[in-house]
Amino acid sequence: MAVKSEDGKELRSFGFKDEDASQEVRAVERRILLETLANQLPPESVKFSSELAKIKTSGNGVTILELVNGTQIYANIVIGCDGIRSPIAKWIGFSVPKYVGHCAYRGLGYYPNGQPFEPKLNYIYGRGVRAGYVPVSPTKVYWFICYNNPTPGPKITDPVALKKQAKDLVRNWPAELLNNIDLTPDDTIMRTPLVDRWLWPATSPPASRGKVVLVGDAWHPMTPNLGQGACCALEDAVVLAKKLANSTKSGPAFVEEAFRSYESERWPRIFPMTIRANLVGSLLQWENPIVCSVRNNIVLPKLVRLGPILEHTNFECEPLTQGIKVQDLHIHQSS
Question: Which of the residues 132, 199, 303, 307 could staple to 20 if both were Cys, CB 3.0 to 4.6 A apart?
């Protein structure tokens, strides 16, 4: 990992194993991860372009999902992993996630003849702006730029405008970052306001309603400052799968209890992590020049220790040895 200031000066460089032997970082393109997981399912398990319009329950406990194209799906169990704007979360009673005060540009630089970077995570810190990039394949490099903004701003989809705005934020920053932006295909660049939702005890709705349950960003959206959003969703899936495997052997009446057990196990991990991600983001987005100077010259090179910072990434689980019949579930994921 290398940390630099906006003028390209290296503030610190280290290997994760050197700092903490238990730590390892692997950067994976999300599309590849999703395709790899989906390929383990029976054929035709995943149906794309299935945007949800309405959800309701029938008198016999079956959940009815009505899609925007008019199709109706009758499900015994619904797992809502449909992202931060989840209609299933809204149906359960959750509020819209809250904007945290900064936005992010993200993209995948494409090098058809091979990208030139070492397998290293690179961070660059400025005043109220930070950026980073990391190779995710022999030909692709993921990059991001996070910047302060008082409002989420208008939705922009024009890739030319997005690239220009991103480069304007880091005009005089290291050339390799600008090159990544220039080499980003139009269909991989985006700008998103960063949001989260804090699951305060006693005031937040439960993660489930009947035989409908939430997973990942649909339940606990968090800012990407710890790199744990998708990781927590995978952890959710592991825990939920175990709970459901046990409950389906006991009978349908135990499904709701499995959902409650899943929430009880996951909440102590994801609630503090959501808050921690928010606070870390606020600290990294400092604008005061004096504070930024202290960060660059004292905090980052001399005080920060990697082990305690990355302890949140540790998650132990036993292998999943028992499966659930896919046809018994309907997993709604954002398209």
Answer: 307
